[in-house]
Design goal:
heterodimer; A: mainly alpha; 3 helices; 63% helix; elongated; B: mainly alpha; Amino acid/polyamine transporter I; 3-stranded antiparallel beta sheet; 3 strands; globular
Chain lengths: 67, 540
């Protein structure tokens, strides 16, 4: 349930209306905040997937394939 | 000339890799080895080749071209949502496809659908729709190849010849190496591109006098400042793009790639590292596409910016033909190559040209997927696997590789639309609408073959309707929209410069939701045709 909630939350966070019309602050002096947010979002996606793989790995499928 | 030579050397190298793959599989010439690399790929090759199979001309040339015209929104539209949804679909659906393939010997998604829903000809209908939707994706790569070779050779290699060379090379290593050749070449290509993305950013940034200055200068101009925000795109439109990555797992070449891993555990690293690879390729592509708007000291880029400005200011008063001409001139599909040409030293231009070529040649797995589908879903199914012996299946597969490549090349010569448009409006939306088939087959006992047929036919009709609509109604000037269907003062269907919208959303949203709804409703109505208990027991 927690995994599902985390996934839905991350999906919802993709819709970052709060940075819609803003280019500033420029992260590292040149990266518009909207672009930086989505780059960070990509890293967060990797983190969530790491958590899912650790906690909800469908190991039973490997057994099934050997039947 | 030197960049073109390096790119040709690179093309020779990938052909050689294909030949090496053929040697590696010399002991096995059966269909499973040719079409699935014997289900034997290791973890690194599986990750890099699967990622490479998803990265096409679209993700490099299309992404930077789209960012050149639309700004930073491109990354949020396609990259960040894909970074979550594609690996998630590999985790949830891909792992199950792998297990079923290993257990029952499936080589294509349609083989699984036929078994799961106990159907024959409905499987053929699904095959036909999948095949038709896959061709545009292959065409993208030919266009990308032609565009790249023309750009890196300074026009010395014309578009038609560049496309032909790329098609022949891809066809060559697919014919020789089959899936193993594709996996090795994709691995080589993905490593190459991941390595040089950062180099491109540093070199071009240095050439432009620093990105800080370029971005500040863009912010100071009212015409370019909006490219650094998302103010020109509605939140609804932005949201609708999150449906596009659903298409990935429904693409037959991705579904088939899921069957090539030796062990289920190899999905782990692929799922976790996929977003990181997305970041490494898309962030440089999009950012460089955006800042290219300040690279007007490069004549080719300046011409594009001027054509776009003319289109924006005089568009409504121009003829449709003149607008089409200006759109072609303003197209940014080759803008990243123009930046490299303008700012990088010659040797680096050559290497980067080869790296871009690596990305645009990802049509190999689509070509082999079509060939696998034709061989297994049509030829072996109707002729019978006993009569269609392994050797005959491989020969048929190879013949189809040649035919598919030829058709894609001819279509590419006659297709003037931008890479991005073709990709999103036809193939991606169609496959996203086919995703409910996979979800229902793997997770819903109550789904029936009639539900699957309803979803498939709906997808075909919807894609056809969009194609007809976009052909009949020419694109209006940028910023304007032509109402096609209006109800009570609300624009239900509209034609904008970027494509068709339905209630302000991309067509992919209603297409996918209606496809899912049809699957549910029709399956419930036809509950009597559910598969036998023994069949269901194999899946649940």
């Amino acid at each position: 349930m927690l995994a599902l909630l985390a996934t839905v939350l991350l999906y919802a966070l993709h819709q970052d209306f709060w940075f819609w019309r803003e280019a500033r602050p420029l992260v590292f002096g040149f990266l518009p905040i909207g672009l930086f947010y989505h780059a960070a979002y990509t890293v967060a996606a990797s983190g969530l997937l790491w958590m899912l793989v650790r906690s909800h790995w469908p190991a039973h499928l490997e057994d099934v394939s050997h039947e | 000339m030197i960049p073109a030579v390096v790119v040709f050397v690179y093309l020779g190298a990938v052909l050689a890799i294909g030949l090496m793959a053929r040697r590696a599989s010399a002991g096995r010439q059966d269909a499973e080895d040719f079409f699935l690399a014997g289900r034997s790929l290791g973890p690194a090759v599986f990750l890099l080749s699967l990622f490479g199979a998803n990265m096409t001309a679209f993700s490099i040339l299309g992404a930077s071209g789209h960012a050149f015209a639309n700004g930073i929104v491109t990354y949020g539209l396609m990259a960040s949502s894909s970074a979550l949804i594609i690996p998630l679909s590999l985790f949830v659906i891909g792992t199950r496809l792998w297990a079923l393939g290993k257990r029952h010997g499936f080589m294509t998604p349609v083989q699984m659908f036929r078994d799961r829903w106990e159907c024959a000809h409905i499987g053929t209908v699904i095959f036909a729709v999948q095949a038709v939707l896959l061709v545009p994706y292959i065409v993208i790569a030919v266009i990308g190849g032609g565009t790249t070779l023309r750009a890196v050779s300074g026009g010395w290699v014309p578009f038609w010849l560049g496309g032909a060379v790329v098609s022949l090379v891809v066809m060559g290593y697919v014919l020789f190496g089959g899936m193993r050749g594709i996996a090795w070449v994709n691995t080589f290509q993905t490593v190459l591109f991941l390595s040089f993305g950062a180099i491109a950013v540093v070199t071009i940034g240095h050439g432009m006098g620093g990105f800080r200055q370029a971005v500040e200068s863009m912010l100071a101009s009212p015409t370019t400042a909006p490219l650094l925000t998302r103010e020109r795109v509605s939140p609804l439109y932005f949201f609708s793009y999150t449906f596009i990555p659903l298409s990935s797992i429904a693409f037959p070449h991705i579904g088939i790639f899921c069957l090539t891993a030796r062990r289920l555990a190899y999905f782990r690293k692929t799922v976790v590292l996929y977003p990181v690879c997305m970041l490494a390729i898309w962030l440089p592509s999009v950012f460089l596409g955006v800042v290219a708007n300040r690279a007007t000291d490069i004549p080719a880029v300046k011409a594009k910016v001027e054509a776009r400005a003319t289109l924006a200011t005089e568009g409504p008063t121009l003829s449709a033909d003149r607008r089409d001409q200006l759109r072609a001139e303003a197209s940014g599909d080759d803008v990243i190559l123009k930046l490299v040409e303008g700012y990088a030293p010659l040797w680096l231009t050559a290497v980067l040209g080869a790296a871009v070529m690596a990305a645009v040649m990802a049509s190999d797995s689509q070509i082999l997927a079509l060939s696998t589908m034709f061989t297994e879903d049509v030829f072996a199914f109707y002729v019978g696997t006993t009569r269609a012996r392994d050797a005959l299946q491989v020969q048929t597969g190879r013949l189809f590789v040649v035919l598919v490549t030829l058709v894609a090349y001819i279509v590419a010569l006659a297709a003037p639309q931008s890479i991005f448009d073709i990709a999103t409006q036809y193939a991606f939306a169609g496959y996203a609408a086919l995703t409910p088939l996979l979800v229902a087959a793997l997770f819903w006992r109550g789904s029936t073959r009639w539900g699957a047929l309803a979803s498939t036919v709906w997808t075909a009709v919807a894609v056809l309707a969009i194609a007809v609509l976009q052909t009949v109604v020419p694109p209006p000037p940028p910023g304007a929209a032509v109402s096609i269907l209006s109800v009570a003062g609300v624009d239900v269907i509209a034609r904008a410069a970027s494509g068709t919208t339905v209630l302000g959303l991309l067509p992919v949203v209603p297409m996918t939701l209606i496809s899912a709804l049809l699957m549910v409703v029709v399956s419930r109505v036809t509950a009597a045709s559910r598969p036998a208990a023994a069949t269901l027991a194999r899946y649940f």
